[in-house]
Amino acid sequence: MANPIHPKLEIPTQIAELIISSAAVIAKNSTKAAFRLGSGKASGGRTLRPGKETPLWNALRAELKTELKGYGKQVNLARLLGVPRQSIHAFITRGDRMPDAERTLQLIAWLAAVRSGSHPA
Q1: Which of 2, 36, 54, 97 could pair with 90 in a Cys bridge, judged by C-beta atoms 3.0 to 4.6 Å apart?
Q2: pTM, whole model, 2 decimals?
Q3: Quick one: CA dihedral 34, 96, 112, 115, positive or negative?
Q4: Could you tell me the end-to-end alpha-carbon distance of the chain, in angstroms, rounded to an integer?
Q5: Rounded to the nearest 5°, which phi and psi values hold at 84?
Q6: Calpha distance 14→108 (Å, rounded)
Q7: What is the tens place of the pLDDT at every residue in 11-59?
């Protein structure tokens, strides 16, 4: 018998499930670990750029791409996050930029809300 989840915990539970499923996709599709320990190059505290060194961001970006196919979806998300539409395009479509930590968490929460059927506006 499954335990029912309190309504206030549904979205955090979905966020956790999304993170777990993204990690599983990364582990399945990548032979490299998400954390590159001892890669030989010291980052020196530099900001990460999107690419092969950011597999978790790449997995989240792929999940977001599927939900943002459709007219006006990127602009609605941009309004919700308080950024220009071009930033969403750079984050998701082009993939040459990454959002800050707060906006990344907002993207995860948005994705969980959309997948649960409630479309934040």
Answers
A1: 97
A2: 0.65
A3: negative
A4: 35
A5: -65, 150
A6: 9
A7: 778 787 878 777 777 666 655 544 554 454 545 667 777 777 788 888 8
Query: Do residues 78 and 64 touch, judged by C-beta distance below 8 A?
Result: no
List, in order, residues 6 or more apart from 90 with CB less than 8 Å away: 96, 97
Give residue for tokens 């990344």: 104
User: Would you say 111 and 63 are in contact if contact means Cβ atoms under 8 Å apart?
Assistant: yes
Token pair in block for residue 63: 């999940």
Please, are residues 113 and 120 in contact by the beta-carbon 8 Å criterion?
Answer: yes
For the chain, domain boundaries = 18-25+51-121
- Write out pLDDT tens, residues 58-96: 888 998 999 888 898 899 999 999 999 999 999 998 888
